[in-house]
Amino acid sequence: MNSKAKYFFFSTIFLSITASAEETKIWFPMTESTSTAYFAKAGTFRQSKGISSVLVQINDKVRNKTEFSKVTMTDADCDNGYGVVNFYTMQGKLDFQSDYVSQGESVGAGVGDFICLVRAGMLKKGSKS
Known about the structure:
By secondary structure, this protein is of the alpha+beta class. Helix content is about 35%, strand content about 40%. A hairpin with a 3-residue loop joins strand 1 and strand 2 (about 35-40). The protein is globular and about 40 Å long.
């Protein structure tokens, strides 16, 4: 299974768990680089006022350190296929931003694609009710 297919698979599982078990403690792989791996916490995906967000665990493989972040991006950026992914500290301060281009090879692209796939799944699920 190639990496894009693997992350699509995990985003689908993430979506089903988010919809059915809000308080689960399961982390799902979003994307990774040679030095870091990013995981989304099931049950934390939110959509409000045109912004999608999720809690993310960032594992630094080099320094053997784990950090957490609230990651957001606008729904318009998902719809356009490009924009910015914002990483906030747990205290709510903007930590850094990453460029997003759908299907790109960067961490920002992987995180953004994951958020957009979950959002799309939520929209489909909502339209069936």
